[in-house]
Amino acid sequence: MKINRYLAILVFLGSAAWIATGEFSFVGSASSEEEGATVAESSEPQIEAATQLQTVGVAVIPQIMHARSVNLSGVTQADKETTLTARAGGVIGELLVKQGDRVTKGQVIARIAPEGRDAAVRTAQQVLEQRKAEAEATLKLVERGTLAKLQGDAAMSALRAAESELEAAQAELERLEIIAPYDGVIDKLHVEEGAATDSGKPVAELIALDPIIGVGEVNEGDLGVVRLGAEAELRLVTGRTVKGTVRYISRAAQAATRTYTVEVEVPNPDFSIPAGMTTELVLRGEPVLATPVPRSVVALNDNGELGVRTVDDNNVVRFHPIDIVDDSTGALILGGIPKGARVIVSGQNFVGDGVEVNAVDADAAMIEKLIAETATGDS
């Protein structure tokens, strides 16, 4: 029992001495500290790596004056189209044209047989001559006082009536001729020589093909690009492209489509472009300073805006929202990029706005690719 008591006292004294030293570490604790020190040492290279600048490729892309274009599906139409009708009834005595013939303004297309109308003109002329002679004789007698002035007035009234009858007979004879009101082409004939017709019945279809008109519909979003008198093109379904000008822009939208009618006038002196042909209208706006860039250069910022990233003189990334002036085959034509800006063409999606980067000029191969793509886009 005494031995156990002594052992207990010894253990107590040893514990007290250990506590007094302040060393509370266990074997596992010491190893953890050593591992922590090792981890801290190994993280130092990682921190240094994290502070290294991101390398991006930059290039100064030449800017150009570019007019935005709007392409519309459309069709060609005649400048004017008229149905020529008979102004008097009768038989077609002469048909002076065939379908497809070109005619000039004032040319006679057909004549209706007079059937006595020319005789009525000759009779009216004779009556007029007689009334003139009677009026002259009557006025002389009135001046001498032989006849009353009232008889002179009656003779003059008869003369005026004869003149009116002659004019009416001549007008009736003139109505027998169907005349072209403008230069054009006889697109269709509705009568044959010797056929009977009535007043108001169609005789021929006349169309004016010089100029030819391209007609299309522009949506309300692109209406601001279109200008009266601006240059435009028609790309015909045959592959031919002709130049013209915008001559008409509707100011009221189509109720069903909310689009506006646009007409492009193109010279067609040889009538080589027919009416009714499918075509594409290419309308161009005012030229603006723009930058042609490959599509790969465009990026999104944190707000979801579309733009390009550049680096300033301090190699800090800047984001520039863009305005798409035109979208061509090889490139985007953009507005909103400062002149002479160093555009990030490689690595733009791995850097944020306001971050300092290591900006290096793009290599020769990339520059050549950029030039080729932007040249294709500019064309």
Question: Would you write up a description of this structure?
Answer:
This protein is α+β, with helices and mostly antiparallel strands. Among the domains are: 54-68 and 288-378, conserved putative lor/sdh protein from methanococcus maripaludis s2 fold (Beta Barrel), CATH 2.40.420; 70-78 and 208-287, Efflux pump adaptor protein, beta barrel domain (Elongation Factor Tu (Ef-tu), domain 3, Beta Barrel), CATH 2.40.30.170; 114-175, Helix Hairpins (Orthogonal Bundle), CATH 1.10.287. It is 30% helix and 37% strand. The protein contains 5 helices and 20 strands. It has helices at residues 2-21, 27-50, 117-144, 149-174, 364-378, and strands at residues 54-60, 64-85, 90-95, 102-103, 108-112, 177-179, 184-189, 196-197, 202-219, 231-236, 241-249, 259-266, 278-293, 299-300, 306-311, 317-321, 323-327, 332-335, 342-346, 357-361. The strands form 3 sheets. Strands 1, 14, 15, 16, 19 and 20 form a 6-stranded mixed beta sheet that branches. It has a 6-stranded antiparallel β-barrel with strand order 2-9-12-11-10-13. A hairpin with a 4-residue loop joins β10 (231-236) and β11 (241-249). α3 (117-144) runs antiparallel to α4. The longest helix is centred in the middle third of the chain and has 28 residues, at 117-144. InterPro entries: Beta-barrel_RND_2, MdtA-like_BSH, RND_pump_MFP. Belongs to the membrane fusion protein (MFP) (TC 8.A.1) family.
